User: What shape does this take?
Amino acid sequence: MFYKIKLKDYVDLSPELFNGNLNESIKEQLIRNYKDKTTEDFGLVITVEGVDSIGDGFKLPEDASRHYVVEFTIITFKPELHEVMQGEVSSVTNFGVFVNLGMIDGMVHLSQTMIDQVSFSNTGMIQGTETGQSLKAGDKVKAAVVAVSFRDIRNVKVGLTMRQPGLGCENWLTSE
Assistant: This one.
């Protein structure tokens, strides 16, 4: 799910970053500070949408930077439990399928790929033993989020399932 979040923070603006337009300079510094960062509260910060207000700047004796209290808006992506997402299979392994969800990758355990017993092929494909349905890199899929872990902020883990009705490879869904 995407979110628009308003924040308030201190921004340190070094002299070399000031380009004559205070709003642009502060936004550039906010992007450096926040873009592509992940927090458990907000998820992955996609971008800084804009600067809403800038307080009076102040200078500390020990550095050349100007410091501002800034209110700004960020756009974030945070997968939510039970959310249905569309993605593309990026790789198939002997233990599951990795799905590119756009901003991050999720993993579907082999047992959660389809309502069928599956076998893994060394050619990088899994196939249902009864249905013959297959799944390979490049396939478009719909999957539901069953787990999200922010334990390691640099490596968010998203667990997915495709075993529910209406989920799975788009090719399977159009042939039903």
Notes: The two ends are 28 Å apart (CA to CA). The chain has a mean pLDDT of 91.
